[in-house]
Amino acid sequence: MATAASASASPAAAFGAKTPRPGPSPSPSPASAFARPSPRASAAGRLHASLHLGGASASASATGSSIVSNASGIHLAAPVLAPLAVPKMTGAVGAHKNVLLFHCEEMRELAEQVVARNDDIELRSISWRTFADGFPNLFISNAHTIRGRHVAFLASFSSPSVIFEQLSIIYALPKLFISSFTLILPFFPTGTSERMEDEGDVATAFTLARILSNIPISRGGPSSLVIFDIHALQERFYFGDSVLPCFESGIPLLKSRLQELPDSDNVVCNKVREGEQRIVRIKEGDPRGRHVVIVDDLVQSGGTLIECQKVLAEHGAAKVSAYVTHGIFPNKSWEKFQPDNGEGPGHGLSHFWITDSCPLTVNAVKDRQPFEILSLAGPIASALQI
C-alpha cells in the first residue's frame, strides 16, 4: 500500500504509482504513472489513494478537496472542516467589565452606592484642590495604574462654578491610555433653557452639548455619555458624532416603588402653556377615590405640581403623590411641599419621590416629609456594563 508523500518520495510514489520493472524501455508509459481501477472499486468507478497535507490527513468530496488512498487506487472523500475559533468580544452578553469609577465631591455618596451594587466597579479618587487665585489645582491619584482599564467619571454640573474643574478631569482621563471612557451626568442642567423665542436668545443646552461632544477619544474609541431623563427630546440631537450618548430613565424606579403601595392607580395630568401662564387640566382618567401620582422629569419652583395637586383634590382624589427624576428646587423651593399627614390631598402630598441626580437637593430634603429618595445607583451600575 502506498504511504503518505514525504520529502524523499517521488510524485508518482505519492499517488500510489507502480514501480516499473527494468526493461528495454527507459521510462514507463504515461498510462503507467497511475494505477488502474481495481475490480473491487465502487460502481461509480472511484479510485483510492492517500495524501497528507501539513502532516495531517484530510478528506474531501468527489469534486476534489482531498484524497484518501489504499492499494487499489484513488478515492475523493467529503471534506472535514475544523471549526473556526470565535474570539470573545468585550461587552458581549454575559461578559463583565472591570470599571474604575472616579467622581466629583458632590457625587461621593452616590458613587459609593454604585460600587456597592457591583463587585466589578472599583472606586478611585481625585484631589480637588485650588490655587490661591481660586482656579482648580487637580490631581488624579495613581494615574499610571489606570492604563488599559475601563474608566468612568460620575459628574454633577449643579452650578457653573463647578463645571470647569470637572471638565478639566473629563478631558484628562481619556488621554491616560485607558481602554474606554464613560461620563455619567445624571442631570443635564442646561436642558431647561433650550427654548429659543427671540432673536438673540442663546441655546446654552446646545453649547454644553458641543463641549461634551469634544471629549477626547480614548484608545477604545469615542467616549460614552449617560444621561437620565433629558428634558427635551430634541436635545439628544445636539451631540456630535464624536461622543456616544446613552439616554436612560428613572421611571423604572418609580414603577418598582409603586408596586409596594396598596393603591397605585394613576392619572395623567397635562400642563398647557399659554404665554407665561400654565393651565392645569385633567387629561384622562377619573381621580375620584384614587391615589393619583403626578409624574414629571424635573421640578424647579414647583408651582405646576402644586396646581395639579389642587385640581386633583377638587375632583375627589383620595391621595396625591408626585415623582420627578431631577429635584432642582432653586432658592429652597422644596419648602412649598408639605405632607398630607393622612388628611387628604387638600393639605399636602402623600409622597414626593425624587432621585439622587441632584445631590445638593438630596442633602436638603432627605429627612423631610413627604420626600423620599430613589437611588440611581442600580441603573448607573448597569449602564457601566454596556
UniProtKB/TrEMBL annotation:
Domain Phosphoribosyltransferase: 279-326
Keyword Glycosyltransferase: no
Low complexity bias spans: 1-17, 30-39
Catalytic reaction equation(s): D-ribose 5-phosphate + ATP = 5-phospho-alpha-D-ribose 1-diphosphate + AMP + H(+)
Molecular-function GO term, any one: ribose phosphate diphosphokinase activity
InterPro entries for the chain: Pribosyltran_N, PRTase-like, PRTase_dom, Rib-P_diPkinase
Coiled coil: none
Disordered as annotated region, ranges: 1-39
Keyword 4Fe-4S carried by entry: no
GO biological process terms on file: 5-phosphoribose 1-diphosphate biosynthetic process; purine nucleotide biosynthetic process
Protein name as catalogued: Phosphoribosyltransferase domain-containing protein
Organism: Oryza glumipatula
UniProt lineage: Eukaryota, Viridiplantae, Streptophyta, Embryophyta, Tracheophyta
